[in-house]
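Hello,

Following up on my earlier ticket. Below are the two sequence lines again, exactly as submitted.
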Amino acid sequence: MSPRNAFYAQSGGVTAVINASACGVIETARLHADRIGAVYAGRNGIIGALTEDLIDTGQESADAIAALRHTPAGAFGSCRYKLKSLDQNRAEYERLIEVFRAHDIGYFFYNGGGDSADTCLKVSQLSATLGYPLQAIHVPKTVDNDLPITDCCPGFGSVAKYVAVSIREAGFDVASMSRTSTKVFVLEVMGRHAGWIAAAGGLAAQKAGDAPHIILFPEIPFDEAAFLTRTEECVKKYGYCAVVVSEGVRNAEGKFLADAGTRDAFGHAQLGGVGPVVAQLVKEKLGYKYHWAVADYLQRAARHIASKVDVEQAYAMGKAAVDFAMQGHNAVMPTIVRTSQKPYRWKVGMAPLEKVANVEKMLPRDYITPDGFHITAKGRRYLAPLIQGEDYPPYKDGLPQYVTLRNKPVRKKLKTAFVV
Amino acid sequence: MSPRNAFYAQSGGVTAVINASACGVIETARLHADRIGAVYAGRNGIIGALTEDLIDTGQESADAIAALRHTPAGAFGSCRYKLKSLDQNRAEYERLIEVFRAHDIGYFFYNGGGDSADTCLKVSQLSATLGYPLQAIHVPKTVDNDLPITDCCPGFGSVAKYVAVSIREAGFDVASMSRTSTKVFVLEVMGRHAGWIAAAGGLAAQKAGDAPHIILFPEIPFDEAAFLTRTEECVKKYGYCAVVVSEGVRNAEGKFLADAGTRDAFGHAQLGGVGPVVAQLVKEKLGYKYHWAVADYLQRAARHIASKVDVEQAYAMGKAAVDFAMQGHNAVMPTIVRTSQKPYRWKVGMAPLEKVANVEKMLPRDYITPDGFHITAKGRRYLAPLIQGEDYPPYKDGLPQYVTLRNKPVRKKLKTAFVV
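Thanks for your patience. The regenerated structure is below:
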């Protein structure tokens, strides 16, 4: 059996550790030269496959590939491009198979979240229908931590650590200034649908009075009166109040707080996110001086403060994907299985893609305190291991040394173009 | 000569390393038990002196004091409270001397920026007038990097490193998503009066195409047309554009861009800062998808990514202040003197306070490129050494272990209260 080539692509919002998964895929594939020929990466994700814009990772040195482990974001480019259903756009799936056939792709490694798990499954199904032999393995990745079956998702632990560290540090800052200056600090974090990231901020509070004092979750409709009461209590008790707010917080009518705000003179929606909206509310209703921060991409790109557990799991998922392929599996995803809580231990598991696609894992209600403003001991037990350990990148001249790959294109073989 | 007590206070906005200076003061004072008795800290800065709310640092263990070196923010509390001129409010200065006399304070260590240098000088002058022997030493601290004479200011190097690391990481993120998603990313950083912090972001760009592509300085009136042209050029050339904007950027009329924005339906000024204003402008005029982040306190509290050079200098300034006092100096400030550029070397110098007070060191025009959008090689030479080295705090359970002191009060000796 002559070796066949592998295709790898990054999908959706990138993370601090998705390249660690790429590293795991490529390094492991290189160990199987007898069965895996070239590893081609899609330039800008699946778009690279559709347009036959492939990157030859074989042109990268072992050192460059190793450096992916400590480099944030998507080294081959990612994309927000969701393939439609097979019924709606069968042509796209057939095009993928056409490109794969032209380049003798026998292994399809797709590194992303729920949507890409679904795509991966469909590609696998179509290849069977068309009689084109292909093993499709999904490599889990999402800061949103919303994939089912796996205990957690690579990418989440590092955002979680960033948010917990940041609110702890900002809390120390505000505490020291609150006598004459800022009394309320609001940190807006990601999480449009679920409060996993906001919940992680709660890890910074290890004893009474620690920041954050209040967490606002998308799962809990915003109760303005209760929030203001709690804020005032904190300021009176601790001198200040530190708040972590998820971008996805909604009011009782289900509208995003960020959108529910006022419009400017031109009718544009509020430029700010939910952070400034909440801060302004505090100012208006309680009169406290406030500051707010919006971490935005900083939180998911912060490789400098990545969780060591997260980096190891991201790498392991990439490695396992190739191992699974070598074992003959298809339409599966490696998962993280928590085998011990204390000490924290985990191992690699496997999930069939049909059980992963289109299922969102929500933050359990019992991870949130009854009053809706913090995490419970149970939530803390789940979250705490995921931010363990530091895994610092190398530095030069005071700056982290992240790799930029050469990303040499593979010569096209098809005459047909494809417009996405 | 029996030992006299020392007073130490933190003033103004805190930094990632002001506690390292406190550590330097206290550890060095403890080595001079024959001449320095207790070290009392002002609770919430100079307010603690005015209200006789003193903290006995002698109640803190050597380990706790050592931990100040890696703890951000102000461990004794700081304040934004500027003493008026001697003419306007002589009573405040006399009150300070009254409290110092009651507690036999012979050494006044004041850790702050330009305003506090001025206060320190006035206290020194009044103590001479009143015949109360006191040595007043200012310990430099400010993220704004605007103190004169000293080559740089403790606190600045760590913000500089945070901003450079953050824009590099966010740049990698945006670069990988720009094919189908965000094309322009805007990071708002501190610096109301001077562009030192924004300039530091420029260090992340080490070769053509690196983020940040554009820096907006308070020193350069915002030229909308030129900015939009440059932004579009970047997106066309590199696929994306990463912008660092100082909160202090003004338009041609001298109005802060953050304030020049629109008002909402209730007439409130824009909630957002200048970051969202600039991002929205890009969207309106060029149609690019944008994201923005406002780092706010996160940048100055980020001890987890502090510059090692900055930490060492902050500690050295605290130590030198005590050394100067032991040598009999008064009304002076230790400074950082750059003795070699390559390799970077520095030593401790000394400046008379009358040359420090009320002088602001601005970002030289020749540190900014002629087009006003980036830093020059000269600016880079100045800035680069200040972010060198990492000085990670200890971690436990995935979180940095910052110390919270016991902050035991010193028994009051005065019958008189003082209302600030």
